[in-house]
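Worked Example 4.2. Read the sequence first, then its structure tokens.
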Amino acid sequence: MWIFRWSEDSHLEKELNDSTYGETHDWTYIPAPRVVKKPDNYELQNPVRSVSPEILTEKEVRNALMAWLRRKVRYKNELAQKMEIKEIVPSIIFYYVLDTFIEQRALKFSCQQKPIIGAALSPNKKLKAWEVQCFPVKYFQEETKYFHMPNSDKKGMCISCYGRGLVLCARCWGSGEITCRKVYSSRRGRMLSLCAECTANNTADCERCAAVGHIQCLRCDGQGKVWYFTNMKVEYLTQHQYKMIAEEDFPTSALQKAHGMVIHDHTAELVTPISTCNEEEVNLASQLLVQESHFAWPDSRILQQKHSLTAIPVNKVLFTWEDLNGRFWIYGTKRQIYFKNYPLKKSCWP
């Protein structure tokens, strides 16, 4: 008795055209072997450069606000000219960034019609996932590579057709006939348009399988056997961590495009946390993020790390205008403005 599997043609064609086919959950990630690495002592030999807040004058504040208003079509510039500046409060926002470049490897059981062509090894030698030599093109540049594990190929029965070389046609469900759509009937007039192919019996031969009821298996190309092998995926990823040390009332979302001064940066296989900054909160943030990076990705191997500390000057301006008390911020080396709910807007503008 012949037993056929249903064909899943669209799904299978995609799989056969892509040797790396498979969702994320199809891959089994292999934990990297543990290697003890010692961080360097760069941080102690190169302390963080100290910086002082930039204090703006009233004239500089008005000029920065006027330059910002010239780019705002709907805003009037009367406020910048007539406001009374009560206080200018300078400060520094520290932006600490830690990038960790990691490598992770995963295996997946795959198959194809032809034998695997790859590096030749001795017949009895097999490599483990982390024994295969692979290197990134460039550090901190994300990429994914795929390999056929050497000596993992073996010929066996095709799991799609159970070695028969044929699968049931998914269009006619193995019957060899399909419902003819050329027959037309009208309920009101009770009219019937006859079809020359099916002579109005509503069935026609399935063109896909030539009325046989089964088609050739795409996975094994009708041979009944395929080559099974282990596919390996190597991923190089950059994990980004950061911490903003700022005043509680400053909108940190405005700092995404802020320009500042890089006062410390270093790249190493494993970086040492910053410990020489005058702002103790920076030292604590660096220590926390560096420690987290050592355990955040347990199945991965850390190839390199880099961290940087940027100082962004900020001036908070407190002002009064008529009966309004307000505030805005001038931040960054390019003196950008953050002014929420600007009060003077034009009623009509082109």
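Now turn to a second chain, presented in exactly the same format:
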Amino acid sequence: MAAISKVGRLNNDSPERYAASFTSFLDATEMSAECYYLFFESTVPDSTLCESGGEVRVLGIGSGSGEADSIITKKLLQRHSSVYNRVVEPSEGLIEKYKTLAREDTSLSAVKFDWRHQTTEEYFLSSREENIKFHLIHAINVLYYVEDPVATLRNMWEQLADGGCMLVTMESEKGDWGKLGLKLWEDFGQGDRLDTSLRMAGDIKRWLDAMGATYVSFENKVDVNATECFQENSEEGMLLLDFITHTPYTSDIPEIRAMALDFIRRHSSLVDDKIIFLSIEETIVAFKKGTEK
């Protein structure tokens, strides 16, 4: 039962294992990193987010090493002459990589960066007394890992300026990856699914619906080569399976491993002798009207 209780808790219980498994996932995706990150450019509204000549203010939650953030910022610079970009990231290594990217990319020279080396929870606690609102707030594949996703969404919404937009990317239940996560929880989950990393785009949309917020969504289909998961004693395969299931050391839990591999096998396509498993990431863009609280 102790092993079963780890379902959906890869990042919570084993952050080092999570980092290694994330690298395995990136290696297994059938899409270049450039193509993957360029998708986010299309999700940023084309409209001007603040008054003409004004500085557009951006808040990035869990910005990592900045690849997605920089794409979004460059899109904003097409319509705004200057951008204030507050970056919230708990990993010192990742924030240093982002700083290097910002220094070396001359197209970001008009951006004023405000670096916050904090967890999401630490940031919102420390900024509670600040009188600042942001025109764009984004959290890309981040809300799996915050302590309380509902509180985080509420804090993001409170710091969003009237007329601004909030952009959140999460795994969709429409993809086979998302369906596996829900099936894992149905068979092995204990407690509240939202207390684990098995959170989905639908959870975000239900919160927005309850708020009466207007939003649109965009889907990005990502093929993942899961072949290594089926290779006995493959460290890369074991790490990838951990990432897919959000569960540490899945290969050491026979019932979960068997269920996950059976699900992947039945829901994958065979392409050039590769087992291709479909992930659908959904980016939700919500708009805050002037009358909303």
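Notes for the reader: Residues 15-28 form the longest helix (14 residues). The chain has a mean pLDDT of 92.
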